[in-house]
Amino acid sequence: MCGIWAVFGLTSNIHGQCSSTFYKISHRGPDAWRLEYDQRMKNCCVGFHRLTIVDTIYGMQPMKLHKYPSSMVICNGELYNCKRLAEQYGFEYETYNDVECILHLYHEFGIEECVKNLDGVFGFCIVDIAKRKVFLGRDPYGVRPIFKVLSETGVLGICSEAKGLIEIEHELKGDRKKVAPLPPGTFEEYDLLENGTVKLVRSKKYFSPGDKPAFRPFVLYEDLSPNAHTDNIRKLSH
Ligand SMILES: NC(=O)CC[C@H](N)C(=O)O
């Protein structure tokens, strides 16, 4: 599973929220957890509960790379084409973890090409401190969950489960806000303001069921038959 959790721009009781709300999703990651505060992003905190799948040591998140020291990613997901992306675009990975490809794709091609190139299941949040941006992304069919709450004053909370946002929602008294899932096949871009609050720049549906994927699939469409379903499943699962 893994659990991602972050708040941006929460001026009241951020320490309390970190210690109470973040732990509401601790069942999602039995192996390790980490909460990160960086003074370049005031009133923000980014956290992760890990169920390790690949690269136990260096795959921990929030993930930061030597190559891109001003950004980080948290992701609940499995990216099946991470090795192929490295071959295709010449990425030099610093870890063996699949999530690393998100940062390379984002920095090379921007957020839209980044999500479109991912073959897998994912709910992620990238923070680019240098460009003062926050991005959310969810896989085409919404296999991995991601919920968010955004107040009128620009306080943003994100979490793999709605229960990790309820107390934040209560904290934003009198401010119109609602916990809602990020729809499948969607990414969002926010400006990160000086005080840590955010401003929505765009919310874009990059994939709808029936669209062909933009990445190179492991089994080509031409190799699938419109009628031989069992054969198709056999090919896809190899
Ligand atoms: N469970 C997850 O979401 C795992 C995240 C990542 N693929 C890892 O192996 O660490």
From TrEMBL:
Q: Name one GO molecular function term.
A: ATP binding
Q: Its pathway?
A: Amino-acid biosynthesis; L-asparagine biosynthesis; L-asparagine from L-aspartate (L-Gln route): step 1/1
Q: Which UniProt keywords apply?
A: ATP-binding, Nucleotide-binding
Which GO biological-process labels does this protein carry? asparagine biosynthetic process
Identify the InterPro entries for this entry. Answer: Asn_Synthetase (IPR050795), AsnB_N (IPR033738), GATase_2_dom (IPR017932), Ntn_hydrolases_N (IPR029055)
Glutamine amidotransferase type-2 domain boundaries = 2-193
Keyword field contains Nucleus: no
Give Gene Ontology CC terms: cytosol
PANTHER family for this protein: ASPARAGINE SYNTHETASE, ASPARAGINE SYNTHETASE [GLUTAMINE-HYDROLYZING]
Tell me the protein's name. Answer: Glutamine-dependent asparagine synthetase
- Organism, scientific name: Callosobruchus maculatus
